[in-house]
UniProtKB/TrEMBL annotation:
<keyword id="KW-0067">ATP-binding</keyword>
<dbReference type="InterPro" id="IPR051120">
    <property type="entry name" value="ABC_AA/LPS_Transport"/>
</dbReference>
<dbReference type="InterPro" id="IPR027417">
    <property type="entry name" value="P-loop_NTPase"/>
</dbReference>
<feature type="domain" description="ABC transporter">
    <location>
        <begin position="2"/>
        <end position="250"/>
    </location>
</feature>
<dbReference type="InterPro" id="IPR003593">
    <property type="entry name" value="AAA+_ATPase"/>
</dbReference>
<dbReference type="GO" id="GO:0016887">
    <property type="term" value="F:ATP hydrolysis activity"/>
</dbReference>
<dbReference type="Pfam" id="PF00005">
    <property type="entry name" value="ABC_tran"/>
</dbReference>
<dbReference type="GO" id="GO:0005524">
    <property type="term" value="F:ATP binding"/>
</dbReference>
<dbReference type="GO" id="GO:0005886">
    <property type="term" value="C:plasma membrane"/>
</dbReference>
<dbReference type="InterPro" id="IPR003439">
    <property type="entry name" value="ABC_transporter-like_ATP-bd"/>
</dbReference>
<keyword id="KW-0547">Nucleotide-binding</keyword>
<dbReference type="InterPro" id="IPR032823">
    <property type="entry name" value="BCA_ABC_TP_C"/>
</dbReference>
<protein>
    <submittedName>
        <fullName>Amino acid/amide ABC transporter ATP-binding protein 1, HAAT family</fullName>
    </submittedName>
</protein>
<dbReference type="Pfam" id="PF12399">
    <property type="entry name" value="BCA_ABC_TP_C"/>
</dbReference>
<keyword id="KW-0813">Transport</keyword>
<dbReference type="InterPro" id="IPR017871">
    <property type="entry name" value="ABC_transporter-like_CS"/>
</dbReference>
Length: 260
């Protein structure tokens, strides 16, 4: 699905991504972990077209997509969510979902006058799809709530719902668990697994919660100082002495020992 080859992204003399190479297999839920400053979000931003790489390349299904703009990647089925949710706060949850699909007939003034029947039909279809998404995510009771009133976890579910309004092939999730309580995090995890198994979504997930990563992700890719340090199952990663000593810290090491 995605292949990253010797990717660099420098900010002046700082090498945020420093020769990273990795692969994300079709149909996987791949975890991307590492300490703050490891280059994870920068890597996501380069893959998703938010930032241009200094050098290296990104391939998707054998096609080079290096440097393509986010809207071009959107049409290829590559989507990226952010650590801080980006909702339209003054619109309802349902309206936020209905805004996602591009090239709607009602977007042009001419069509608003000449294609009212087609616009009405499209809106009815979007409404139906939005309600199906809300049911899938078990937040249909929030359909008419203003998105700005949602909790942090509910906003993360809404972001996940947006990816379901289009034909997403791969979704990059940046710290989906940040600021989310355990109950909602489990709901988000369940939705990710269902989307993967039932709808064929491929995911790459940045997350610091190792329990969440271990539950969802295989493989797990480890980054440190802009480079890929290790890759393997969550169990393998947590037992990797080099990974533990290099940057995951004594907290994880003690957790591994305690669980052992």
């Amino acid at each position: 699905m995605i292949r990253v080859e010797n990717l660099h992204r420098h900010f002046g003399g700082f090498r945020a991504v420093d020769g990273a190479s990795l692969e994300i297999q079709t149909g996987s839920i791949t975890g991307l972990i590492g300490p703050n400053g490891a280059g994870k979000s920068t890597l996501f931003n380069v893959i998703a077209g938010v930032l241009k790489p200094t050098s290296g390349r990104v391939m998707m299904d054998g096609e080079e997509i290096t440097g393509l703009a986010p809207h071009e990647l959107f049409h290829k089925g590559l989507l990226r969510t952010f650590q801080i949710a980006h909702e339209f706060s003054s619109m309802t949850v349902r309206e936020n979902l209905m805004m996602v699909p591009a090239r709607q007939s009602g977007e042009t003034l001419w069509n608003a006058w000449t294609a009212r029947r087609r616009i009405a039909q499209e809106e009815a279809e979007l409404l139906k799809k939005a309600d199906e998404v809300l049911d899938f995510l078990t937040i249909s009771h929030l359909r008419d709530e203003l998105a700005g009133n949602l909790s942090g976890g509910q906003k993360k579910l809404l972001e996940l719902g947006r990816t379901m309004m289009v034909d997403a092939k791969i979704v990059f999730l940046d710290e989906v668990g940040a600021g989310v309580n355990r109950t909602l995090l489990n709901t988000i995890g369940d939705a990710i697994v269902r989307l993967n198994k039932e709808r064929g979504y491929t995911f790459c997930v940045i997350e610091h919660d190792m329990d969440f990563i271990a539950r969802l992700c295989d493989p797990v890719i480890v980054m440190a100082e802009g480079k890929v340090l290790a890759q393997g199952s969550a169990d393998h990663i947590m037992e990797n002495e080099a990974v533990i000593e290099a940057y995951l810290g004594t907290g994880l090491k003690n957790k591994v020992v305690a669980n052992g």
